[in-house]
Amino acid sequence: MRKNPYVPRLAKIVEIREENYNTKTFTFRFLDGDGFKFTPGEFNLVTICGAGESTFTVASKPGMKDLQNTIRKVGKLTETLFNMNIGDKVGIRGPYGKPWPLREIEGKDIVIVAGGIGLAPLRPVIYYIAMNRDRYGHVDLLYGARTPKDMIYTSEMDEWRRVKDFNLQLTVDYVPPNVEWTHKVGVVTVLLKEIEADLRNTVALICGPEIMMKFTAYQLHKMGISDGDIYLSMERRMRCGIGKCGHCQIGPKFVCMDGPTFSYKEVRLLPDAFE
Ligand SMILES: Cc1cc2nc3c(=O)[nH]c(=O)nc-3n(C[C@H](O)[C@H](O)[C@H](O)COP(=O)(O)OP(=O)(O)OC[C@H]3O[C@@H](n4cnc5c(N)ncnc54)[C@H](O)[C@@H]3O)c2cc1C
Ligand code: FES
Question: With a threshold of 0.85, does the pTM exceed it?
Fold first, then answer.
């Protein structure tokens, strides 16, 4: 008999790591004993009885059996989840969606640009490249957040800096008084001049607020990266996650099926792509 795609798998929370004042990374273990196979860039849905269902990018390290989601507290489901503890149970559907084209971009230099919690879908990419270092060229990771306190994964950044040919650059929009900050100040596009990659053979992967993706993609285009080599992870409210309800549409595209990763060439001219 065909499995009902709307029935979630049961999982329990086995770890909760605080990333910052409103964001936590949850590790979920499946009660059926099976793992969670995924490809970087895909998403899953989390269901909590009485709170509903919401969409999150898979933030796990490739190869790990458990599922990790990095989640910002913004509304009904996320508030309920933030009140839960180790051992509490949730439902999980997925993974769904179109991943980053990691196979297709082998041999290229990579520029990763992330804003705020937009680093979550790129965390698996960073680890995938580190695990398969000889398959990719130079990597630039340009990460921006509103303030130093809004950054995520800061506890992992020293490990990333040790990856061969890996240039990590950080910026914040604003440094509050009495906060120590030794990196750049300004929106993330100020970091584009720090790129070390060979732009004639480079692919860009971008995720963040839409306004940030719009300006970053446009600047990278002006710097000479072709629109087909610039990839973005788009966000739209979802219901079914599997192409049935139409909630996630951008023009003719379904973010849940045709995305969430799109090339800039695919979405640049779509109405409402960048709101
Ligand atoms: C592909 C994808 C990946 C994502 N990955 C992550 C991730 O990794 N981490 C993460 O924290 N978030 C992620 N999100 C966003 C996340 O799905 C939403 O923040 C989610 O709605 C939170 O659920 P909630 O019930 O807590 O919030 P809700 O109660 O749904 O409210 C969330 C916000 O949306 C507003 N809102 C409510 N209803 C609507 C509506 N109909 N239309 C527009 N806005 C509305 C609310 O006012 C509030 O500001 C992702 C979304 C997508 C589509
Ligand atoms: S979420 Fe239902 S069609 Fe995309």
Answer: yes
